[in-house]
Structures are given as C-alpha cells and as structure tokens.
From TrEMBL:
<dbReference type="InterPro" id="IPR002068">
    <property type="entry name" value="A-crystallin/Hsp20_dom"/>
</dbReference>
<dbReference type="Pfam" id="PF00011">
    <property type="entry name" value="HSP20"/>
</dbReference>
<dbReference type="InterPro" id="IPR008978">
    <property type="entry name" value="HSP20-like_chaperone"/>
</dbReference>
<feature type="domain" description="SHSP">
    <location>
        <begin position="27"/>
        <end position="143"/>
    </location>
</feature>
<protein>
    <recommendedName>
        <fullName>SHSP domain-containing protein</fullName>
    </recommendedName>
</protein>
<dbReference type="InterPro" id="IPR031107">
    <property type="entry name" value="Small_HSP"/>
</dbReference>
<comment type="similarity">
    <text>Belongs to the small heat shock protein (HSP20) family.</text>
</comment>
Length: 143
C-alpha cells in the first residue's frame, strides 16, 4: 500500500519558504498527523491509526475513485464555558487530518471493516480467498 499524506508535519521549515506564496502555508506548518501502522498477514491487511480521544463519529472512511482508501478525521471542541473558566492558553480545540492509502488489487473492498477502541482506529482490509480470486481472474470464453 502506498500512502499519500495531505499535510506537512516533519521538516516543515525548508518547505515554508517554497510554499510561502501559497495561501495555506501557515495551516500546513501547524498541521499534525497521527502515527499509522500497516500490518499484513496471509488473510488481510490492517491499518492502525493512533487517535487518542477520538470517537467513531469523528471519522469518515471511504474508497476513492483511484482505488484508494481515504481516511479523514475532524474533531472540533466548542468553547462552552460551563464552569466559568478562563483559558490562558488553549491549543487543542480543533484537529483535522486526511490520509489516502492506495489499495493492492487483492483487497476485497466489499468486506472492509473499521472500529475505534482504546485510542486506535483499526481498519481491516481482507484479502480475496483463493476461490474468490479464481472467480475474478477467470478466462472469458469467446463464442
């Protein structure tokens, strides 16, 4: 799987000069991204995304037009002040992230599942079984 990231998180200082005239340069400089693991077994691939404090409602996962899995996350915290608190500094009120992973041809897209537990989003990408693969790769008879 080939990841494409929609943010800049490491070594942003050199690119800030290259992207200075881009209107979104400050947004790119402040962007963050969760850590991602991709694990392969004989039966499937698993994508694990570190997302502490996030719930399933914060995510949108879909298949893109170019055979890619698109994972996006957005978390907004409203500034409701129920306890009459005065924040002197508040840096965690908004988080947004998007990641695209190109899927291998052997992924059964109809059986992809996802769940969030213990601060980790896990997406299971089952591989086609040998029987299913044989059906997909069958030879077409000419009449």
């Amino acid at each position: 799987m080939m990841p494409t990231r929609k943010y800049y998180n490491q070594n942003w200082l050199p690119s800030i000069f290259n992207d200075f005239f881009d209107n979104n340069w400050m947004e790119k400089a402040n962007a963050t991204a969760p850590a991602i693991n991709v694990v392969e077994s004989d039966k499937d691939y698993k994508v694990e995304v570190a997302v502490p404090g996030m719930t399933k409602e914060d995510f949108n996962i879909h298949l893109g037009d170019e055979n890619e899995l698109v994972i996006s996350m957005e978390k907004k915290v409203e500034n409701e002040d129920k306890e009459n608190k005065k924040y002197l500094r508040r840096e965690f009120s908004y988080t947004k992230f998007q990641q695209s992973l190109y899927l291998p041809d052997n992924v059964d897209k109809e059986k992809i599942t996802a769940n969030v537990a213990n601060g980790v989003l896990t997406i299971e990408l089952p591989k086609y079984s040998q029987e299913e693969k044989a059906k997909i790769n069958r030879v077409i008879e000419i009449h």
